[in-house]
């Protein structure tokens, strides 16, 4: 108790922020999910009717599969390609100035406003012969113009989000690789280790914490993000790129079904919590915490 009172002045501000900006919104959303609130904004409680409606919604299965594909493939891009970029710019390229220029170029999409970034993708994928990708395909292979957003909406969604997510992974992994003492590299080179062996047996083990953090953080972020999908495809055509969080947004703020939208969001909160606990267990979080202790 004395220890808690001592720590309270330091932890208090953060606890207040977490309560105000996480627990209170989640509690209000949970209460809202048991109502049939519509454009009249009346709190008419209807029990679990919104949750039962999920089982009869004609598009819910397609949206769930879209979400699974979107999170899985974008996560591979964000974490896997981010790691490759970090190794390339930190381990293979020794000149810091060249590495910095390369990392800055990859950070440009993240620094660009979301609307501008989405407009660039729409212009790049324009279905006419004047679209940049169609012009490039016509020049290289003589291919006729294609409507990429209509024919490959999920691929576009994954690539557009992956280009941004990989830059954050690159920065975090680059900083972690920089913190590895050079003595490990020198010792490995003296023993004749190849670049692949150094990456596998030195860099990857040292990056276990950042890899765990980025995987969990990116998974939760992808589950709840929809702004680029909204701006580029708006979930179309015919729900082919509609994900769970975007469906909640459409139900609440396009159809004014606030109660049903809240129920869809609450399912996402439960899934996110379960995935976080599962990933912490898969990464061996408890063992990683205990590893630093000194046994006497």
Short note summarizing the structure:
The protein has 296 residues and is mostly helical.
Keywords:
single chain, 296 residues, mainly alpha, 15 helices, 76% helix
Can you put this structure into words, describing what you see?
The chain is mostly helical. It is built from 15 helices and no strands. It has helices at residues 2-32, 49-56, 60-92, 96-111, 114-124, 132-141, 148-151, 153-178, 182-190, 195-206, 208-224, 227-232, 244-254, 258-282, 285-290. It is flat and about 70 Å long. It starts with a helix and ends in a 6-residue tail after the last helix.
Instruction: Report helical residue fraction.
Output: over 70%
- The tally of helices reads 15
SS elements, strand count: 0
Q: What structural class should be given to the helix and strand makeup?
A: mainly alpha
Cα distance spanning the termini: 28 Å
Layout of SSEs?
Layout: H1 2-32, H2 49-56, H3 60-92, H4 96-111, H5 114-124, H6 132-141, H7 148-151, H8 153-178, H9 182-190, H10 195-206, H11 208-224, H12 227-232, H13 244-254, H14 258-282, H15 285-290
């Amino acid at each position: 108790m004395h220890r808690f009172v001592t720590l309270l002045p330091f932890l208090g501000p953060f606890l207040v922020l977490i309560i105000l900006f996480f627990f209170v919104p989640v509690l209000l959303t949970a209460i809202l999910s048991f109502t049939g609130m519509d454009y009249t904004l009346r709190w008419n409680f209807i029990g679990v009717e919104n949750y039962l409606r999920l089982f009869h919604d004609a598009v819910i299965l397609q949206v769930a599969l879209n979400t699974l594909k979107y999170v899985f493939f974008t996560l591979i891009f964000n974490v896997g390609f981010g790691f490759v970029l970090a190794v390339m710019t930190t381990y293979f390229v020794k000149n810091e100035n060249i590495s910095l220029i390369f990392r800055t170029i990859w950070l440009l999409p993240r620094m660009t406003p979301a609307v501008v970034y989405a407009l660039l993708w729409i212009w790049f994928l324009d279905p006419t012969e004047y679209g940049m990708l169609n012009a490039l395909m016509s020049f290289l292979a003589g291919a006729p113009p294609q409507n990429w957003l209509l024919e490959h909406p999920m691929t576009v969604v994954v690539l557009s989000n992956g280009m941004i997510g990989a830059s954050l992974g690159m920065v975090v992994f680059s900083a972690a690789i920089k913190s590895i003492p050079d003595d490990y590299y020198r010792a490995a080179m003296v023993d004749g280790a190849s670049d692949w062996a150094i990456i596998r047996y030195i860099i990857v083990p040292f990056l276990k914490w950042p890899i765990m953090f980025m995987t969990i953080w990116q998974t939760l972020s992808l589950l709840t993000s929809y702004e680029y999908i909204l701006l580029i495809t708006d979930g179309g055509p015919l729900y082919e790129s509609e994900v769970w969080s975007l469906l909640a947004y459409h139900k609440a703020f396009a159809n004014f079904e606030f109660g049903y939208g809240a129920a869809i969001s609450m399912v996402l909160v439960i899934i996110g919590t379960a995935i976080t606990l599962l990933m912490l267990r898969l990464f061996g979080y408890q063992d990683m915490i205990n590893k630093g202790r000194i046994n006497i």
